[in-house]
Amino acid sequence: MTDREIVIRLRGIRNQFGSQVVHDDLDLDVYRGEILGVVGGSGSGKSVLLRTIVGLQTPNEGSVEVLDTDLLSADDDTRQTLENRWGVMFQDGALFSSLTVRENVEVPMRGIKGLDPQIRRDLADLKISMVGLQYSAGDKYPSELSGGMRKRAGLARALALDPDIVFLDEPTAGLDPIGATGFDELIRNLSQSMGLTVFLVTHDLDTLHATCDRIAVLAERKVLVTGTMKDMLEVDHPWVHEYFHGPRARAAASEGSAKADRKGD
Ligand SMILES: Nc1ncnc2c1ncn2[C@@H]1O[C@H](COP(=O)(O)OP(=O)(O)OP(=O)(O)O)[C@@H](O)[C@H]1O
């Protein structure tokens, strides 16, 4: 494991809002090409952690290194270059409501000097088809799409610049089980075909089973433990035990193994 390339390296992160300490001396490594699922109780600081890595939240202490660049000391140009190498999909897709899906996907590409508008459109259409949306979805406005389609459109925008890393904040929240399963498969396929590293905040146990290579548990203001799903089952900590051994976890595990059996048939 240690010889794998680290694309995100957090050390000694402290995030505090007033008297509330959300993270204290938090360390985390994310490896190239993996899908890391980040879990933790409500309010444990998963979203704040994501925001810290993408530069939307400046930690009170600690260092954030992404793709070998120290984010906190980087100048504006370096930071911009770095930001072009990752894509972020927030919970509701966070699309601009006044733009069509295609125009939304084109937004990150507008920063590329000299890119022909027609090529930009074509590239946007390519991303739209990559996330499993029909060509015609490109002309629609976000309000004309279902929640699942909006999430796919948000993912298309996150992929606009062929990033090394994508950050997904609860991508399957609010989707019906079939839509959620479809989204899990999409993430898995895209990660494999594009060699993407995926940082995925989720509450969804099915997603953890179906999609994630490794899991990081946020508790007690730090990353308490990282490892595979199998490793999680061995962790002797009340919250971790309850989460991975509770009734929902058992249902997700049996569905995961049933799927594996069906694949093996
Ligand atoms: N900008 C802010 N100002 C003040 N407090 C904040 C801010 N952002 C987050 N917090 C607090 O930090 C804590 C962690 O929030 P965060 O959204 O990261 O939790 P989470 O683990 O993502 O929760 P959930 O699973 O419910 O989405 C919460 O108590 C929240 O109220």
Describe this structure in words.
- It comes from Marivita lacus.
- This is ABC transporter ATP-binding protein.
- GO terms for molecular function: ATP binding.
- InterPro entries: AAA+_ATPase (IPR003593), ABC_transporter-like_ATP-bd (IPR003439), ABC_transporter-like_CS (IPR017871), P-loop_NTPase (IPR027417).
- It contains 10 helices and 10 strands.
- By secondary structure, it is α/β, with parallel strands linked by helices.
- It has a domain at 6-85 and 163-264: Rossmann fold.
- 37% of the residues are buried.
Looking at CATH, which topology of the domain at 6-85 and 163-264 would you report? Rossmann fold
What's the CATH C level of the domain at 6-85 and 163-264?
A: Alpha Beta
How many E-type strands?
Answer: 10
Q: What proportion of the residues is helical, as a percent range?
A: 25-40%
Kindly report the name of the CATH homologous superfamily of the domain at 6-85 and 163-264: P-loop containing nucleotide triphosphate hydrolases
Unreliable stretches (pLDDT < 50, length at least 5) are none
CATH architecture of the domain at 6-85 and 163-264: 3-Layer(aba) Sandwich
| Classification by helices and strands | alpha/beta
Give the helix/strand layout.
Elements lengths: L5 E12 L2 E12 L3 E6 L5 H8 L7 E6 L2 E2 L5 H8 L2 E4 L11 H6 L10 H14 L16 H12 L6 E5 L7 H18 L2 E5 L3 H7 L2 E6 L2 E6 L1 H6 L3 H8 L1 H18 L1
Parallel strand pairs: 3-8, 3-9, 6-7, 7-8
Antiparallel strand pairs: 1-2, 1-4, 4-5, 9-10
Helix pairs in contact: 4-5, 6-7, 7-10
Bound molecules: adenosine-5'-triphosphate (ATP).
